[in-house]
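Structure in, sequence out. Go:
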């Protein structure tokens, strides 16, 4: 039956099967895309199936939500039209007079959104280094939102003590798991209450769909009820096609990610030994300040790294301009290697070093990637 939970299977199997089933009407192995915006009732007024109206839900979104909930080991997932829309739904679960604490180097788009909304709707928005739980909780927040690893500085807050400290202070912990994906880290098992995703990134993986999701450890929690109401009422939901495409893409997440990390580990070693690079920021390297936490918390160190290129803004700009294979584009987690001179994207009020270049390693042949970076670093 479509929409059935798969049970206790390995994550590498869940990405293939979770939420999916053979279509009983046709025997189709790939599920149909259910475009219908409304669902019929019988003569008595009873709905013929489990669905009522497309904004509330449809079979294509169900498949995706079941899959994400199972991958994160959660109760339920709610999918949105973007990661930012998921972040907004989370924010809207707060009341005026409450406080929220976010990581100091949180994704800059959501940080800006939260600051702006907080000022207008009476929610205090505090920023903290979430590697220090005591400092984070001094503001007595209702919610703590943490990324681990962070983007683009790749610090790795320790989630288990942060969850314990948040709960002791009466706060809920939300982990943005976009960078790690549930295949490297399952925050709910470490005590988090909610997980946030920009599914645009690794889960979609091909730079062709924008999406977001929240996953809860407890579907009966009042905050989750508010989030579900917001999803259905505010309606920033993915289209059936986007939901279908995302569920289809997740099937290859495991093989994509393993290849990306294999190449990232080799590239980190290559850059570390390169005289033109000042520093390599990658949690898999022993000198990374959070290496010990990363080893414990992440199954593998991921496929994102940042380079301090040296030579200030100009030095980084020259390096990035010399690339012929890696694409100069924002975003991350795609099959193609994406490189970004972060200061260009974040603008003048960014705290990110001016010569920082972020790399999202793709699935291209390793030799071609190394050759491309090597050539760009040798350019005069
Ligand atoms: C991209 C991103 C977001 C925002 O998601 P969109 O899908 O672009 O709206 C949030 N958090 C992280 C960590 C991201 O990388």
């Amino acid at each position: 039956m479509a929409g059935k939970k798969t049970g206790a299977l390995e994550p590498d199997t869940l990405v293939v099967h979770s939420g999916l089933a053979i279509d009983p009407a046709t025997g189709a192995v790939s599920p149909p895309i259910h475009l219908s915006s409304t669902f019929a009732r019988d003569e008595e007024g009873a709905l013929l199936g489990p669905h009522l109206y497309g904004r509330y839900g449809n079979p294509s979104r169900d498949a995706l939500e079941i899959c994400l909930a199972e991958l994160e080991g959660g109760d339920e997932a709610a999918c949105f039209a973007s990661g930012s829309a998921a972040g907004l739904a989370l924010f809207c679960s707060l009341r005026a007079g409450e406080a929220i604490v976010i990581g100091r180097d949180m994704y800059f788009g959501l940080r800006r959104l939260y600051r702006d909304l907080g000022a207008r709707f009476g929610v205090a928005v505090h920023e903290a280094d979430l590697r220090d739980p005591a400092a984070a909780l001094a503001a007595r927040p209702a919610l703590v939102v943490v990324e681990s690893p962070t983007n683009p500085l790749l610090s790795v807050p320790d989630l288990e003590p942060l969850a314990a400290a948040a709960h002791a202070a009466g706060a809920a912990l939300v982990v943005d798991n976009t960078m790690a994906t549930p295949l490297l880290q399952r925050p709910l098992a470490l005590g988090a209450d909610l997980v946030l995703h920009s599914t645009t990134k690794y889960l979609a993986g091909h730079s062709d769909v924008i999406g977001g999701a929240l996953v809860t450890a407890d579907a009966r929690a009042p905050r989750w009820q508010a989030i579900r109401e917001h999803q259905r009422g505010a309606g920033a939901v993915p289209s059936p096609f986007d939901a279908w495409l995302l569920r289809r893409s997740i099937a290859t997440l495991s093989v994509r990610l393993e290849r990306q990390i294999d190449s990232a580990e080799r590239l980190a070693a290559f850059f570390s030994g390169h005289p033109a690079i000042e520093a390599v920021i990658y949690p898999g390297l022993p000198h990374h300040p959070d290496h010990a936490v990363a080893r414990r918390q992440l199954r593998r160190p991921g496929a994102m790294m940042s380079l301090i290129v040296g030579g200030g803004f100009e030095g980084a700009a020259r390096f990035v301009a010399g690339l012929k294979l890696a694409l100069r584009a924002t975003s991350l987690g795609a099959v193609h290697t994406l490189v970004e001179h972060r200061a260009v994207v974040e603008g003048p009020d960014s705290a990110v070093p001016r010569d920082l270049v972020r790399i999202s390693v793709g699935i291209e042949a390793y030799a071609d990637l190394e050759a491309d970076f090597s050539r760009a670093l040798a350019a005069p």
